Amino acid sequence: MYDDIQEKDIVESGNKVSHHGCVDVDLRLYYDQKLDKLRNETAPFIKIYGIGPKLVMKHSTCRSLLRILDWAGAMEDFRGSSVQAEKFRTEHFIHIKTLMETKSTIELTKYLDDSEEGKKHCEEMKKIYEHELEAHKMRLKRRKELVIIHFEVDSG
Q1: CA 27, 31, 37: angle at the middle one, nearest 5?
Q2: Is residue 75 within 8 Å of 19, Cβ to Cβ?
Q3: What are the counts of helices (DSSP H) followed by strands (DSSP E) for the chain?
Q4: What residues have CB less than 8 Å from 10, skipping those under 6 apart?
Q5: Alpha-carbon Rg of the chain, whole angstroms?
Q6: Exposed / middle / buried, residue 42 (Cβ in 10 Å: 0-12, 13-18, 19+)
Q7: Mapping DSSP to helix (H, G, I), strand (E, B) and coil, where does residue 17 land?
Q8: Residue ranges with strand state E in 2-88
Q9: What is the pLDDT along the chain (156 residues), one digit of tens a residue?
Q10: Distance between CA atoms of 59 and 94, rounded to whole angstroms?
């Protein structure tokens, strides 16, 4: 799974620090600069971001893409299964992933930043992310309230 214990420790400590949805940080955890290669164990990265670190590294200068990947990673952490979250994953993200696989970084950046279609995709994905973030915050708030109620009942 991991090349050595140190590699495993680096990835695990990075997971604790960055949580989900910080593709820039996570990408650095999966890329060994000394050896100029990706680490062997990339499954957690793919689970979080829906795409491998090699393809993300190829387009790592496209800031709009990194923002989309941050949203995708955060939404994975939210564990949201709403219609909107599904639309994000299927309709929008698959389209972006296809572009990543077929376009150069310059073409991808121009599409996301300059074309009306690309801007529309980004805006719709942002709205879905913000909606899911609010829903996630509400779930956390309800969970916290239940813990407090449970604590009060047990200690009362």
Answers
A1: 145
A2: no
A3: 9, 2
A4: 29
A5: 18
A6: middle
A7: helix
A8: 31-32, 37-38
A9: 445 555 555 555 444 444 446 898 888 888 777 777 777 788 888 988 889 998 999 999 999 999 999 998 888 877 666 788 888 888 888 999 999 999 999 999 999 999 999 999 999 999 999 988 888 888 888 877 766 665 555 555
A10: 16
Tokens of 37: 């290669």
What are the backbone angles phi and psi of residue 31, rounded to the nearest 5°?
-115, 120
Residue 143: other Cβ atoms inside 10 A: 10
pTM of the model: 0.75
Q: Which two tokens stand for residue 149?
A: 């109620």
**Lookup: tokens for 89:** 């994953």
Instruction: With beta carbons less than 8 A apart as the criterion, state whether 65 and 100 touch.
Output: yes
Distance between first and last Cα of the chain: 49
Measured on CA atoms in the order 98, 116, 119, 115, is the torsion positive or negative?
A: positive
Length of the chain: 156
Q: In 3D, which of 132, 135, 143 has the Cα closest to residue 73?
A: 132
Write out the DSSP string of 52-63: -HHHHHHTTT-H
Closest CA to 122 of 77, 78, 69: 69
